[in-house]
């Protein structure tokens, strides 16, 4: 659980101006306000820019909390250089879903599925109904920052006859000593990430895409997550995870000069169809909260290397103050312990390895003995997982103080192609290239 995730990810969506498109002929809602009028109120109030404009929307932060009345009007863009759901701020609700292609689907069937999914995603992200057998679950809501992101797993290329187009970066992840992986909840041919600031909007998208799959693909696994809702804090703040720790101070930012190099495949990358794309590592990390909560606050802070109250490093300063790894206390001991999580995961302690974390917390009930089944749906983005996730996780394996309080229960690696241009569907350059 590396100490990197967007400072804005836990804060409120950025109100960047954009134009919303409403549903033609939409019925008025209970208060007599049509969907067209609802979305039209975004105007200067703003919609989150996605895809090509995502960096600007992601980097900016509002001066105060987002009024709840404006949450539904925020919109991310479907078309652009990159797929949505990578650089946007964290959303309040998320679904991660994997599918396996049905026997006999092949390349033509996969192309038809991606065409259907892309068309549905574009409509839903604009706050419009699906256009076919819509369930009306989100009828009264705006886009609510909905993003839908698609990726391909290792097996996708075998089933579609595209093995020669499979990136070497998609080779299976190595085994890690802390893994207790459930194969039934790992990997998959196709991966979908859904995020929104309204739970009904997110579920509506999930149901629509599952119906669109039809007989072409069957559900392999699904995981549901959440984050702090927009407007829940008096001012933008970095997220807290279920351990109560500020989680996300050192994440790469789109304003960083090397952000694109670390997160996205370059235009001249290999293979060519991945230009503008990224690789997503997905891990279901169970937090052993009963054990964690037995620790005193100072003990918890030593495990992480940061103060629990405000996320500042134990070496002093504020949340964004650079950590002084050499500072010692009165007894000569390092103020930030040698095995502290924040020390081990620093890019400058890992040959510059970095990744963009964009996780969700989860809670799936309790075991029979009352132990909570809760933790982190870890999602990280990088241009090359062999230079991003893998070296950091290997180092964590060798002595992270946080490891005894975590259990890695599921894992997946997916190639996420670049964004679709207007008139294209996601993955078209691969499937029709």
From TrEMBL:
<dbReference type="InterPro" id="IPR048328">
    <property type="entry name" value="Dyp_perox_C"/>
</dbReference>
<dbReference type="Pfam" id="PF20628">
    <property type="entry name" value="Dyp_perox_C"/>
</dbReference>
<keyword id="KW-0479">Metal-binding</keyword>
<keyword id="KW-0575">Peroxidase</keyword>
<comment type="function">
    <text>Involved in the recovery of exogenous heme iron. Extracts iron from heme while preserving the protoporphyrin ring intact.</text>
</comment>
<keyword id="KW-0408">Iron</keyword>
<dbReference type="Pfam" id="PF04261">
    <property type="entry name" value="Dyp_perox_N"/>
</dbReference>
<dbReference type="InterPro" id="IPR006314">
    <property type="entry name" value="Dyp_peroxidase"/>
</dbReference>
<dbReference type="InterPro" id="IPR006311">
    <property type="entry name" value="TAT_signal"/>
</dbReference>
<keyword id="KW-0456">Lyase</keyword>
<dbReference type="InterPro" id="IPR011008">
    <property type="entry name" value="Dimeric_a/b-barrel"/>
</dbReference>
<keyword id="KW-0349">Heme</keyword>
<feature type="compositionally biased region" description="Low complexity">
    <location>
        <begin position="1"/>
        <end position="21"/>
    </location>
</feature>
<feature type="domain" description="Dyp-type peroxidase C-terminal">
    <location>
        <begin position="238"/>
        <end position="420"/>
    </location>
</feature>
<keyword id="KW-0560">Oxidoreductase</keyword>
<feature type="domain" description="Dyp-type peroxidase N-terminal">
    <location>
        <begin position="83"/>
        <end position="227"/>
    </location>
</feature>
<keyword id="KW-0732">Signal</keyword>
<dbReference type="InterPro" id="IPR048327">
    <property type="entry name" value="Dyp_perox_N"/>
</dbReference>
<comment type="similarity">
    <text>Belongs to the DyP-type peroxidase family.</text>
</comment>
<protein>
    <recommendedName>
        <fullName>Deferrochelatase</fullName>
        <ecNumber>1.11.1.-</ecNumber>
    </recommendedName>
</protein>
<dbReference type="InterPro" id="IPR006313">
    <property type="entry name" value="EfeB/EfeN"/>
</dbReference>
<feature type="region of interest" description="Disordered">
    <location>
        <begin position="1"/>
        <end position="35"/>
    </location>
</feature>
